Amino acid sequence: MSEELATGPKESPPAPRAGPREVWKKGGRLLSVLLAVNVLLLACTLISGGAFNKVAVYDTDVFALLTTMMLLAVLWILFYLLRTVRCPGAVPYRDAHAGPIWLRGGLVLFGICTLVMDVFKTGYYSSFFECQSAIKILHPLTQAVFVIVQTYFLWVSAKDCIHTHLDLTRCGLMFTLTTNLAIWMAAVVDESVHQAHSHSSSHGNTSYTRLTQDWERAGSAAGGDCSCNTAVCQVFQQGYFYLYPFNIEYSLFASTMLYVMWKNVGRLLASSTHGHNHTPSPISLFRETFFVGPILGLILFVVGLAVFIIYEVQVSGETGRTQQALVIYYIFNIVCLGLMTLVSLSGSVIYRFDRRAMDHHKNPTRTLDVALLMGAALGQYAISYYSIVAVVVGTPRDLLAGLNLAHALLMIAQHIFQNVFIIESLHRGPPGDETHGTPPREPCQGLTFANLDALHTLPACPPPAELVGPSPAGPQEALWIMPAFGARPHFSNTVEVDFYGYSLWAAIVNICLPFGIFYRMHAVSSLLEVYVLS
Q1: Closest CA to 293 of 425, 466, 423, 421
Q2: pLDDT tens digits for 281-333?
Q3: Degrees (nearest 5) of the Cα angle 58, 491, 515?
Q4: Which domain of life is it from (predicted)?
Q5: pLDDT (tens digit, 9 = 90+) per residue, 468-515?
Q6: In this structure, is residue 248 part of a structural domain?
């Protein structure tokens, strides 16, 4: 009997039991996610319903909800700063990868622009406060307080791995994240309503009068005269509409940082992050290759601003000038997209000769960056494929149709190759982590293959990220500014509008374009991180 037991299969040792905190970790996350989903759905329902006249939801209801959410988020942030982090052993670890200085710097910049927008918005609604609800003036004031408190909170606490009040902290972070997403949705809907109203006014389109601006709905609801006739009122109105893109980016930047903090709640870190907690060397920022990419990017950025101004001036004029503006717009975008595609592809090819070790350690910040890059690119993919179908199947065969087709194809290629380059760059180890000894049996994993015998004869050169990292940043910012500040060639070029109809095409653009705009700014942040850490 003992021999049978000896020859039989050995029983595997029992798995170690997790501690009570680890067991409830997923339960605490589930509770906070359920809270966020329900609050977000409520906000989404009110915000989307408030954009239509046929729905008995007014913008005052939306403002009341957003104001309440921001006040609750501010109260929790103050509790976190004044009570939670002051508990003994509350923050035993700090995540070195979370909240890098360039991300926090961008958050401060967009936060300042959001505060200016709140000033314009307060002045705009105060211009005719006799027929306005008090919540419309209270909302931008509350948002200003929320932005100031949240920016300070993220600046000092973005790296925290909190180990006190775990469930309350998770719920508070998720609620604050949901508040930022609700503000983002409200800004996107307001901007889409503004664009739809401008298009219907300029083209005499009356089939979309369901979408109206909030001030028009407020005037009709209050039964008073809320027309914006004074010059100061019009300056305030145009000012806060032009500052909406910065508010949108601020909300998204804050949401990403809050998500990383939520993932780090209760996280245990080793004293040494496996040797991959590296910081950029100050000397590397002033090498001879440092100025090549930024200068090229700055030139393209300035040219992009000039193209955007020409487009905005000419697109509202005669038909011939609109066609000329579209040609200039598409040619500039094609040049930028082609250049960025070649640069990203070159970086990926150079990486095949780089023997630096890969970093496979757990990193919530990097995981989120990859997910955002892949997810946000889907919006631009959708618009491009819809444009390709409309151009190929549609009847126009002129120069504008050809430029539109080339623009859509290059847009897809640029997103693909840039994502490959950024994701591979984020997973590479720090400088000096090159593999030594004999190469592995399967050393080539990528798009191309390298000659291993020639690796030892190559001259020393800067890392690929130093050569190509900053180059696409300037075009990225130029391609962000154009759609973010109102350039809509999707409607000025009538190919897609005639093919799909305005209703369907407007829905596609208004849903997908905000993700494409966010992709550009997030790509700038990722490229800067890749360049500095190289």
Answers
A1: 466
A2: 444 444 445 566 677 778 888 888 899 888 888 887 666 688 888 899 999 99
A3: 65
A4: Eukaryota
A5: 545 566 788 888 888 888 788 888 888 888 888 888 888 888 888 888
A6: yes
> 126 and 54 in contact (C-beta within 8 Å)?
no
Could you tell me if 66 and 166 lie in one domain? yes
- In this prediction the pTM is 0.78
CA 174, CA 262: separation in Å to the nearest integer?
7
> Crossing angle, helix 473-484 and helix 502-533, to 10 degrees?
150
- Name residue 412's amino acid: I
Q: How far apart are CA 140 and CA 122, in angstroms?
A: 6
| First CA to last CA distance, the chain | 64
More confident residue, 113 or 530: 113
Residue 397 has pLDDT above 60, yes or no: yes
Cβ within 8 Å of residue 60, ≥6 positions away? 133, 135, 136, 218, 221
**Number of residues assigned to the chain:** 534
pLDDT tens profile 453-470? 444 444 444 555 455 545
Burial-class residue 438 by CB neighbours within 10 Å (0-12, 13-18, 19+). exposed
382-386: average pLDDT: 93
130, amino acid identity = E
Same domain, 372 and 416: yes
Task: Give CA–CA dist 478/132, Å, rounded.
Answer: 38
Average pLDDT over residues 515-534: 81
- State whether 299 and 195 are in the same domain: no
Half-sphere exposure of 472 (CA within 13 A, CB side): 35
Task: Confirm whether 281 is domain-assigned.
Answer: no
